[in-house]
Amino acid sequence: MSENFNELDARLWPATATRNSNGVLTVGGVSADDLVKDFGTPLFVIDEQDVRTRARDYMDAFTTSDVPTTVFYASKAFLATKVAKWVADEGLFIDVCTEGELEVALRAGVDPAKILFHGNNKSVAELEKAVRVGVGRIVVDSFVEIERLNHIALAACCTQQVLIRLTVGVEAHTHDFIATAHEDQKFGFSVASGSALNAAGQVIAAEGLSLLGLHSHIGSQIFDANGFEVAAHRVIQLAVHIRDTFDFVVSEINLGGGMGIAYEHDDDPLNVQEMAKSLRDIVVAECHRVTFPVPHLAVEPGRAIIGPAGVTIYEVGTIKDVAISDSQTRRYISVDGGMSDNIRTALYDAHYTAALASRTTTAVGAQSRVVGKHCESGDIVIRDAVLPADISPGDLLAVAATGAYCRAMSNNYNYIARPAVVAVSHGKVEVILRRETLDDVLFLDPGAQTP
Predict the structure, then answer these.
(1) Among this protein's residues, is 287 annotated catalytic?
(2) All residues at 6 or more sequence positions from 54 whose CB lies less than 8 Å from its CB, including other chains
(3) Does residue 151 form part of some domain?
(4) Does 12 share its domain with 122?
(5) Which CATH number fits the domain that encloses residue 363?
(6) 175-212, pLDDT tens digit by residue?
(7) Is residue 218 within 8 Å of residue 272, measured between CB atoms?
(8) Do residues 353 and 385 lie in contact, with contact meaning Cβ atoms separated by under 8 Å?
(9) Whole-structure pTM value
(10) Quick check: is 73 in a domain?
(11) Is the N-terminal amide bond of 42 cis, ω within 30° of 0?
(12) Which candidate in 97, 157, 375, 406 is catalytic?
């Protein structure tokens, strides 16, 4: 029905998203046309209050129980100093996986003790910096890294707390999970092969390291707790083997995360309170089953904090109707961004939802494909969508749930400058990341500099 084009599904759009009296999409009390007038397109818009509320929801769900729990914000989803300050204000810890992410967190004033450092190939310089600034947890991922980090910690005359990254043979994505061996990947020590147990022994024997616990990550965009149940069983069983083999009891279990969000109307992720209860119940039950003390729990919700709070606003450029059969036509709606600001559709066949942002409409729907301006046939933002048939050049089109992994994975393909990111809250706008200029893009090319 045509009137549905004007509705904003609350599961997909930021909490404050609505339409003003002129039918224009408004987030945080600021209209899309005003934002575009001041900051141009494409434009990432983040609802600050939505981010803070989701952070508080996770804190409330996971920390108000008799199972001590730490919630980590995923830097790789999207990180800037302002966002790091928001989540730290709300009590979240932060996980990073590069020196750059670590530096952003530090410049935001995040307590290093509340930072966890991931990564399968951390450089010596990165490890030295992490130890030097006092990063609270480093997740070791190989025997080489254990030895390397031990030398660094000893040279710094300190003891570094570590978690061991595990490969538990569970892969979970969206509604499904696979509980058979999934060993062919770059991350972690295999539980099944025994390398995880050997890694624990090496860490325990290392004078410069202190084994805090075990870390597992089973996937992303997870909608239920089934995969976590199998993973927790295997992680806690390993903890028992470590206790029995080395007379050492690990005190923390990090189950990772990757909690799912809604990108389309049919997506129905698990409520955060239900997810938290499920994970706690799973861990407690497994520990009781094998008579193991319930450890400190840690979780990493991933995109669930920032993803739903973000939208991308584009301007429509050209429109082309293409016959795809004798009886069907697809409308190609080209926008002024694409795979440089959202590469997830090209990489992962990700699905998104779009809405006409600059006005309302009573038009019928047209089978459409939203594409970017790059010189690639795979430059697709939304592969299949039914959008108003009256969308025209100059209209604003908004894409929901782009707060995570869009600006973070953005690039300068075809020498396109990356969009600005702005935060909106209570009618006010704050620049999180300014828009790149062409001079920014050309800065690294000595031959492009003006004498």
Answers:
(1) no
(2) 304, 305, 306, 308, 309
(3) yes
(4) no
(5) 2.40.37.10
(6) 555 444 366 678 899 998 899 999 999 999 999 999 99
(7) no
(8) yes
(9) 0.94
(10) no
(11) yes
(12) 375
